Structures are given as C-alpha cells and as structure tokens.
C-alpha cells in the first residue's frame, strides 16, 4: 500500500512552532522503499501536528506525517523525541502528546506540505499549546474503540488495512476498551 494522497494545504514553506496532537498506530503497512520500486513492510504511525500560530479555535491548522515506529537514531521519530526534550531510547510515543517543537514545512512537487527537521525551540521560547485535544490509539491490549472512532477517517482507513487490526479480538473491536 502506498500512502494516501494528502490534501493540499495553504501552509507556506518555512519554520513553524508545532505541537503533537494525535498519534495513531496504523500497524504494519506495505511501503515502497525510498528511491526504489521495491516494497517492504514496516510498522507505521501517523502523527498529527497542530500549528498554533496559524490556528484559531474555529479552524485549527494541522499537518500529518507517516512515521516508522522505530527508535533508529536516523529516523524522524528519534529526531522528534529529541526536539521535544525526550530521551528517544526510553520515551513512549504517548510522551510526545502535547509537546512542542519547531519544524520546517517544505512543499513536494505535487504541492503537499511535508514536515522536516524537528528541532527544540530556542531556549526560553514558549510554544502555544493550540486548540485541539490530544488523542492516541494503539493496536495492542490498550486498543480503545472510542479513540479509534475519534480519529479522522483517513487514519481509520489506514488502521483497518493493517494485519494488527485484523488480529484484534473481535470483542475489542465492537465494544472498545472501557
């Protein structure tokens, strides 16, 4: 499976304060290896970021990124955890929720916004928390049906395609974790 096409957004290229708002375990996905036509399976997350300086309560501005579920020192997730002041070797993904950092937005050839280069805010700088509540869902014993149903449709669609979702206890999928 390749990543779904993302919506075009009106976010200019540049550096922005960002806050981690959603983390969704979308399980194992078949991805095209970077720079090749080969496919490989990788555990993936979708992380949603709010850009507080562009957001209003009526219209929060968000960007999302597919992230490999790995603590490899060259991964985006590792850099994100460091930028948010966490130890990537010991932190959990949920530790990122509500944390702020500075990220670079670049545009792809197709016009989509891409988040790169997460760094810590300058010493003493405060990042606004934004307007959205934080939310996470994992495809393990902590699976929560209500959290799943609170995810945007594009995230639900990615989760449903994973073997981990398929192997969840049917009762868990129907009733959710209380």
Contiguous runs where pLDDT drops below 50 for at least 5 residues:
1-7
Number of domains: 1
Mean pLDDT: 88
> Mind telling me the C-alpha Rg?
16 Å
Total beta-strand segments = 6
Largest sheet geometry: 6 strands, mixed
Order of helices and strands: EEEHEEEHHHH
* Count of helical stretches: 5
Distance between the termini: 32 Å
Shape: globular
> What percentage of amino acids are in beta strands?
25-35%
What share of residues is helical?
Answer: 10-25%
What does this structure look like?
This protein has 178 residues and is α+β, with helices and mostly antiparallel strands. It has one domain. It is built from five helices and six strands. Strands 1, 2, 3, 4, 5 and 6 form a six-stranded mixed beta sheet that branches. The protein is globular, with a radius of gyration of 16 Å.
Give a short overview:
This protein is of the alpha+beta class and 178 residues long.
Helices and strands, with pairings:
Blueprint: E1 14-32, E2 39-50, E3 62-68, H1 76-83, E4 100-107, E5 113-119, E6 135-137, H2 145-149, H3 153-160, H4 163-167, H5 170-175
Parallel strand pairs: 1-6
Antiparallel strand pairs: 1-2, 1-4, 2-3, 4-5
Q: What distinguishing features does this structure have?
A:
5 helices; alpha+beta; 178 residues; six-stranded mixed beta sheet; globular
């Amino acid at each position: 499976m390749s990543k779904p096409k993302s919506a075009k957004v009106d976010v200019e290229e540049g550096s922005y304060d960002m806050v981690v708002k959603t983390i969704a375990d979308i399980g194992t996905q078949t991805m095209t290896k970077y720079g090749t036509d080969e496919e490989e399976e990788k555990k993936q997350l979708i992380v949603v970021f709010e850009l507080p300086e562009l957001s209003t309560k009526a219209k929060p501005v968000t960007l999302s990124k597919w992230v490999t579920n790995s603590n490899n020192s060259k991964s985006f997730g590792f850099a994100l955890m460091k930028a948010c002041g966490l130890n990537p070797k010991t932190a959990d993904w949920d530790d990122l929720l509500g944390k702020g950092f500075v990220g670079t937005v670049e545009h792809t050839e197709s016009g989509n916004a891409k988040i790169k280069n997460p760094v810590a805010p300058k010493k003493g700088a405060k990042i606004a928390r934004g307007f959205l509540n934080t939310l996470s869902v994992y495809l393990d014993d902590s699976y929560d049906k209500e959290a799943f149903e609170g995810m945007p449709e594009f995230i639900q669609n990615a989760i449903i395609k994973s073997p981990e979702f398929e192997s969840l206890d049917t009762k868990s999928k129907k009733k959710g974790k209380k």
